Amino acid sequence: MLRITIPSNGPAKLTFSSFENEDLPKPPNGIDVEVNNNVILLFDDEEEAIDFADGLEDISNSINDNTSPVKLAINDIIMAIKNNKFIQDYLE
To answer: Where in the chain are the domains?
Structure first.
């Protein structure tokens, strides 16, 4: 299982509560939360995470308002996935 952390101090200030309140797309294996409110995305493997990020990019590109809380949150999720060491190693 691959666990990818989304820091709660990103541009969207994404927490478990805001993740739920904004009704953001969840990965196939769901999400978890750390004590410090960082959201953890759960995936079977790197390929599943990359596919999920690709789908989120499509959603993000369809949102015209760059200040939208949903767009900011989705972009935080995409960046967390793309910056993950395991994902970067997989892509090399």
So the answer is: 2-91
